[in-house]
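P.,

For your records, the input lines for the assembly:
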Amino acid sequence: MPIQRLTVLAILLIGAVALAGCGSASGDLTPTPATVAEVATALAMQRAAQDEAAPTEQGAEPADEPTSTPAPAADTPPETASESACIDCHTDAETLKVLAVEEVTESLSEGEG
Amino acid sequence: MPPLEAWERVLVSQAAVSEDVHASIPCTQCHGGSDVADFAAAHEGIVVDPSDAPSQVCSTCHSEIQQAANGSLHMTLAGYDTALYMRSIPENHPALEEMEANHCNNCHATCGQCHISQPTSAGGGLLEGHEFVQKPPLTRTCTGCHGSRVRNEYTGRNEGYPADVHFAQARMACVDCHGADEMHGVGLENVTHRYDGTRTPKCEVCHADAIGADSTVQQHTLHGDKVACQVCHSVEYKNCASCHVQRNEDGVRFYTIDPSWMDFQIGLNTNPTEERPWSYVLVRHVPVDPQSFEFYGADLLPNFSARPTWLEATPHNIQRNTPQTSSCDNCHGSAELFLTEGDVLPEELGANQSVIVRELP
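Structure tokens returned:
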């Protein structure tokens, strides 16, 4: 009965593919990466719009050309911000100790607030 | 909460810029400024708290919460207006608004002041290096504003008085009772007072078997709709009086206030509703007098008597056993527990007529 065997094998194969697909979809539908993807896409489009306004070499593709951003898998860390000067300084305690200035405010209040 | 050094307040963690879901958003997207190495140029046009502009940043992803939060008391501080305007007249509102801008509005809580940093009124500073904290911590956010009364009562900082049983035994944080919907004002519109709308939190959510018609606690079936839970299960709590605000010649804002005192007063419920049907509630003296804001104009509260100075309170010092629960006579016929004319300053008698108890139960 080769035809029956093939039919059974085909059904098993389809079932396995379907189950694998369900597992993958479940992971992709967690809200966190979806949110990340939406934000990343919106930001990429915004950056692209800004780049369009700036002059570029003819024929050269803008570096931030918006493309369909794939949703990262659930266990993938979110794409990190591209800006570095802000982060370099604000993650460096020693730099901040030098640059962060305490605002001096006179405290004249008396009693519990 | 311990004050943070200036550099600590703005120190961003590696986790915040690499692991937090918001790490995909460039800093300048929310904060403005420029991503350049020069300090002055980088901070040109910087926005310290982007969430201070309603719906500008957070609503991109959290639109429903942001929409509700925009009308919440945490955001609008409308409760201040309710109290002040009732005691005043429209002609005085501009002066009162100037006063509020100088002395009250730094308690205005933006999204960021609960989920990213300590509140401005508590000195500010990032909570977890700019990671977004889903549940604001009791010690560094909530009690930054709700400090001298709620924090001290709840955590037992009033000398000689026990901490709230929910803290002392269950180690419960604010958010364990005060959920996100309540904090964000979800389901409320035009809210003007903290007791508006559905009563939250409700003791019976956790103590369902002890409260209500089927309760096995006789005192609960006898008193359930007559007295608020705190009337029997609170102990003495803090009362304040005569907060006066002003600015010095350099424009520095400051206040003076009389010493607070611990007291316990049962008053009449001035606004019984289906949600709050009780005849008796606890009342607390609030820190206002007719001259509180005279720096901003003479006689700004001409209708001072239109609102009690002893107002319904829900002290955060709940105990299972209190002096009130020890015997019937501790409340019934016990004049010292009830707000009577003798407990009220002569100049405030007019304001408190609606809460003064005249016939002891």
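Two observations worth noting. The interface with chain B takes residues 32, 35-36, 38-40, 42-43, 77-91, 93, 96-97, 99-103, 105-113 of chain A (CB under 8 Å). Residues 15-33, 46-77 of chain A have pLDDT under 50 and may be disordered.

Regards
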